[in-house]
Design a protein that fits this description.
Blueprint: H1 2-8, H2 37-40, H3 108-118, E1 131-140, E2 159-168, E3 183-191, E4 194-201, H4 214-221, H5 237-244, H6 250-256, E5 271-272, E6 277-280, E7 286-295, H7 304-313, H8 317-327, E8 333-341, H9 343-348, E9 368-377, H10 382-387, E10 400-401, H11 406-422, H12 502-509, H13 513-529, H14 533-543, H15 548-557, E11 598-602, H16 609-621, E12 625-630, E13 634-637, E14 643-646, E15 648-649, E16 660-663, H17 670-674, H18 676-687, E17 692-695, H19 699-704, E18 720-723, H20 728-740
Parallel strand pairs: 11-12, 11-16, 12-15, 16-17, 17-18
Antiparallel strand pairs: 1-2, 1-9, 2-3, 3-4, 5-7, 6-7, 6-10, 7-8, 8-9, 13-14
Helix pairs in contact: 4-5, 5-14, 6-12, 13-15, 14-15
The structure holds CIS-heme D hydroxychlorin gamma-spirolactone 17R, 18S.
CIS-heme D hydroxychlorin gamma-spirolactone 17R, 18S is lined by residues 125-128, 131, 165, 167, 184, 186, 199-201, 206, 211, 214, 274, 356, 390-391, 407, 410-411, 414-415, 418.
Binding site for heme: 125, 165, 214, 411, 415, 422
EC number: 1.11.1.6
Keywords: Heme, Hydrogen peroxide, Iron, Metal-binding, Oxidoreductase, Peroxidase
Length: 754
Amino acid sequence: GNQALAAQMPFNADKPFEYGDASRQPHEGSSNTPADPIATASTSAEQNSSAKLGDMPADGVNRTNAPLDRVRVDSADQVLTTNQGVPVADNQNSLKVGLRGPTTLEDFILREKITHFDHERIPERVVHARGSGAHGFFEAYEALTDITRAAPFAEAGKVTPVFVRFSTVAGERGSADTARDVRGFAVKFYTDEGNWDLVGNNLPVFFIQDAMKFPDLAHAVKPEPHHAMPQASSAHDTFWDFVSLMPESTHMLVWQMSDRAIPRSYRTMQGFGVHTFRLVNAAGASVFCKFHWNPVAGTHSLVWDEAAKLMGADPDFHRRDLWEAIEAGAFPQWELGLQVFSEEQAEQFEFDVLDATKLIPEELIPVRAVGRMTLNRNPDNFFAETEQVAFCTAHVVPGIDFTNDPLLQGRLHSYVDTQISRLGGPNFHEIPINAALAEVHNNQRDGMHRQAIHRGRVNYEPNSLGGGCPFQAGQMGFQSFPERVSEDKVRGKPEKFAEHYAQARMFFESQSLVEQQHIANAFRFELTRVQTPAVRARVIANLANVDAMLATSVADGLGMEVPYPSSLASNAPMPSYPLSPALSLLVRPGSTGIATRRIAILTGDGVDGAGIEKVYAALLSAGAVPRLVGVQLGTRTAADGSRLDVEISLEAGPSVLYDAVIVPDGAEQGRLAMTGQTVEFLRDQYRHCKPIFAWGGGAALLTAANLPSSLPDGSDDPGMTVATAADAGGAFEAFVKALAGHRTFLRETDPPTV
Ligand code: HDE
């Protein structure tokens, strides 16, 4: 019975006990010894392997599992025990003196259970507290041995396991996913030569140039200290007060106010290493490098009104999207790209490559695709893996080295340091998710929670009693690039660091008009929430140095005059950059298909059952996710007498959870037409510029919702597909095309008329 049921489960087909009827049955169970990886593959994701990878292990084996198998626990068919392994007879009643008497101190079972519970929480990350992780692998397209000896790039087709954690920055651990914020994009490569962490963000620049300023920045953006508000939002006085006094943050602010700070999905955002890094080859020659992750699914973002509503409708929107995509076998992928350049080239740039508030335009140094990352397995346990994973910029392997970027230099210290309080001591590298696949041998010993049992009497080096082992690797080991430095010790910064506006201008002016409008609107929103007029004015005074139109638009939106531009550092160079089209999300190549898009099909009594069946099947076969949405759960009778099971109600599944809506013939009758949420649903779909497809009588619902039938300029709305019942089949093609193109921004007016 359970097998049959497992086959029908929407996900985690091999964990039927967690879902549906089977979850209420006693476990029939399996063994807890994960001996045979094929037999114990426990999620649908694990049973898939990439066809692309010739050297992948047999079907059903996920190579990122093997190292964790020794600690994976499955309690099916097992007796309940204490932490000491003693079988527990009664897990419901504490030990009392008489049935109505006091509980005994002797009850070690009760005390162990409560004591453990009392200590279940650990401190959350001081920034990036809210995150979601996944396992996967990186595959190199070609050997990069000419520029680096780093293990993942040693040969074409080489596969390196990874664990990735995506995050927001400002919100606490339980905050909502769709806040306007930078997203963390941290990748741990478990290479043959040790762990390499590429701890990046989804924006290529940063707010500040020097690590010295980071605690102030984080304090300013986090909830204000006296009342701990607002949660997961930069729209408050302390943040804007700080950044308005920190003109170097201007470039990043324009990015943060862009739609990139509200991605549709982790799967549809870029990632960046931000800093300039060094690559070093086996001969010791070095080049500079910037890291880019480009999503294979193309980039896509939310619109702000939608993001704000999503925080209520599904605070786990991004976490759920990532989890479900992997469980469904639609494995998220990114291409790794490198911008490689020499020290001599760097000297010619108008900006300093050690300044993390600047990027290198792709038109100047092209991005070379060097490999692909695939996320193909969800964690077994959120705490053990996603919460306990510890990234650190100092975790590099031979072939990768740092530069003197003063922001990076500070990070090299911070990440290990913070784990010591977060994970309770210096042995966090032994926590399974953090443990290297490469063997670890040194004379570091003891400390809280030590797992390894080191043998022998030698715990020092040099030694003769241990035969000199473990021995230094010499040429084989990590060697810092011998950069020549001869300078005075000073507190200060180089001249090129003093120019803060030219790249902000390049970014803003490289955006499409729609994107520019969204940026201005986001500044307006955030600064409207700011209570102190002087802070608003100071932000606009900085923007006045970026782009006059931007400054004017924001000032207009706040009902104020554009103030005099803030003063510029007099000795700063004033570069002027050509536009960089690659910076606009809307001009980047998008995905062509509609895989994983979520489509609501409004369903009630009397709808066109055969028509729904057809579009449902067509969407499924294109990899999309159709859902029958009705006034409430239950079975509806279609006009042709067929029966349709509503999958979710308008109340539980509002518009923002869907990329598009279909209104079939017959939806205009009965309870759908009488329900306020139907109108709200359609108006939100329209306002968020999503494709709408109605046929036959269904079109009457669009009229009832007062949706314009053409664009504000009077032309046809390509996202609005309305057909007669007879033409529905042909019109479906047009709808799918609109869906592949995401949104019809031409609908937008400011303020919205719908
Ligand atoms: Fe971080 N950052 N950061 N950061 N950061 C942390 O480390 C820090 C910076 C980034 O999913 C902390 O383990 C300093 C830039 C990500 O676990 C902490 C400075 C970039 C994550 C820390 C920066 C990042 C963190 C908090 C300026 C993009 C989440 C918990 C000198 C390139 C990693 C932790 C995860 C997390 C310090 C600036 C990305 C406190 C001091 C620039 C993705 O160590």
